[in-house]
């Protein structure tokens, strides 16, 4: 293979990978200089000129002519007067000899290895370009097409044919995709696995919800409305705290839109995730009240040292504060940064009801605490639930729930 064919084939391959001309020339020169170093031990006195467009390559070895008896005659950049005269009869001592080196002089094996090295360098460069491209897009929304559905992940292809990965853990539980579907997600992170970039997407990240708001709400995109914090149970419920520094803008109204037009687009993308948008405030009591919406809070007690908040509500508001599956109170706690305990107002207790604290000799204290965290602070409030509801709300074992029911029912049977 001569130099012209080698360079032209490499240049065509590089252009197909969208490699710019200066980078292409730099790679070619690096590879040819590596060949020179392998054959001549150094490339310091060699001049390499490449014209990738025409496939031209010129390699010149530059040496200074010295006297045959000179001590420097063995230096890599020196040539004896006698040897120089064999190249050109009229050379004189002190002049420089430019000796052209043909590619064939490196040997067929070296040229083939150079070709493989050039292709590998482009592939490595392509990986670096891909890594850097998506590293800069971490936290941004991308769209890609599903081309293979596996057990633990979905493989997608972007517009340039690059493979992206959407793991099962980063999918909304209600997501159902088929081959050929277009999927929206954020670039969650970019890993390097054995030299290959691995682009991980996410649809469960709070950042995904934030970017969707930016797409649907111009005031958020323009910075007129700030999203202070987002907490999510993907596919189930989310709470978004927003604020505006412009008194003329209602941040909640702007995010929801006329008749819910803006937020509906976000909800649809998130498989009907229930999204609560609330006004952020530094008034902790008010913030907690808003976070527990739609429940109406009667009173609040804050323990700053323990980072716990006790919230008292009327009996008919407790289930609203807890929410389906306990999601409302869990998200409210994460939003405000405090553990929230829900209690019925004491003056609303049924005279025949019994506070759970009375059962401390029969039910472990930690179990009673778990029950109280979800607003279940009396025997009748627990017995009003089904076994399935109590298991889902508290995440207690079924055997434990059966024992709790037995103990509480026994109290009223007596």
Automatic annotation (TrEMBL):
Domain of life: Bacteria
GO cellular component, one term: cytosol
A Pfam family matched in the record: KH_NusA_2nd
CDD domains: KH-II_NusA_rpt1, KH-II_NusA_rpt2, S1_NusA
InterPro entries: DNA_repair_Rad51/TF_NusA_a-hlx (IPR010995), KH_dom-like_a/b (IPR015946), KH_NusA_2nd (IPR058582), KH_sf_prok-type (IPR009019), NA-bd_OB-fold (IPR012340), NusA_N_sf (IPR036555), S1_domain (IPR003029), TF_NusA (IPR010213)
Gene Ontology biological process terms in this record: DNA-templated transcription termination; transcription antitermination
Domain S1 motif residues, every copy: 139-204
Keywords: Cytoplasm, RNA-binding, Transcription, Transcription antitermination, Transcription regulation, Transcription termination
Subcellular compartments: Cytoplasm
Biological role: Participates in both transcription termination and antitermination.
Subunit structure: Monomer. Binds directly to the core enzyme of the DNA-dependent RNA polymerase and to nascent RNA.
NCBIfam families, alphabetized: NusA (TIGR01953)
HAMAP family, alphabetized: NusA_B
PANTHER family listed in its UniProt record: TRANSCRIPTION TERMINATION FACTOR NUSA (PTHR22648), TRANSCRIPTION TERMINATION_ANTITERMINATION PROTEIN NUSA (PTHR22648:SF0)
Family according to the record: Belongs to the NusA family.
Name of the protein in question: Transcription termination/antitermination protein NusA
Lineage per the UniProt record: Bacteria, Pseudomonadati, Bacteroidota, Cytophagia, Cytophagales
